[in-house]
Amino acid sequence: MNGWNFLENMMVHLRDLNHASILLRICLSVLVGGILGMERGKKNRPAGLRTYILVCLGSALVMMTNQYVYITYQTGDPMRLGAQVISGVGFLGAGTIVLTGRNKIMGITTAAGLWTAACSGLAIGIGFYEGAIFGGIAIAFTVSGLLKFDIWLRKKSRYLDLYIEYNTKKGGFSEFLQYAKDHQIEVHNIQISRGYSWHDPDGKQQTLSYIVTVSSEVNRTHTEMIEVLAHEKGVLFVEEL
After folding, report:
1. 3.90.79.10, 3.40.50.2300, 3.30.70.150, 3.30.465.10: CATH of 157-240
2. pLDDT band at residue 49, thresholds of 50, 70 and 90?
3. Cα angle, residue 31 at apex, residues 25 and 35 outer, rounded to 5°
4. Is 29's pLDDT higher than 60?
5. How much is the pTM?
6. How far apart are the first and last CA of the chain?
């Protein structure tokens, strides 16, 4: 019982703003941010180890500053600066989202990770250690532990988004549609992409790029569908989005 009382008293002390709690919160924010950033850093993403640490540490400092102002001057809203972080970090996250020339979106997981790292930092900064630690573990598991399951789930999807570069000299795109139909592949929608096009010296457009959604009427993997469509005579390049 005495040990439990000591632990409760220690937690109360650490939730107050003092030298011990400030040091703990700073170290914990660096640790949690570093763990979350390591996985992105290994994948060579735009936001890696240092970015995640800075976001988490900065959020913790903001909450401690807010708590300090509230306690010292007995004024203001103790959550006001934290609310600004939640909305403001979206600007940083949006900068990591990239739309490639082939209309492939990259960086969404990194952006979401930065936002959750900021949330973890806010929890640490206000002294909500339990939420920060358990939340950090859950975030790390979602980013790393569920990666293989996410890939498996995508591969099992019936629908497949493809980027296709098509040579119009070898026929119209209607021939591609007929080819897909003959091979029991349904094309659900077609969008002309601005990612790539090529004109001959006379100015006549000879290559167009398309974004299409397809599904197979028979049991095929995504790789098998791509291989079937790649053999159509007008297809120059095909890639899964």
Report:
1. 3.30.70.150
2. confident
3. 145
4. yes
5. 0.70
6. 59
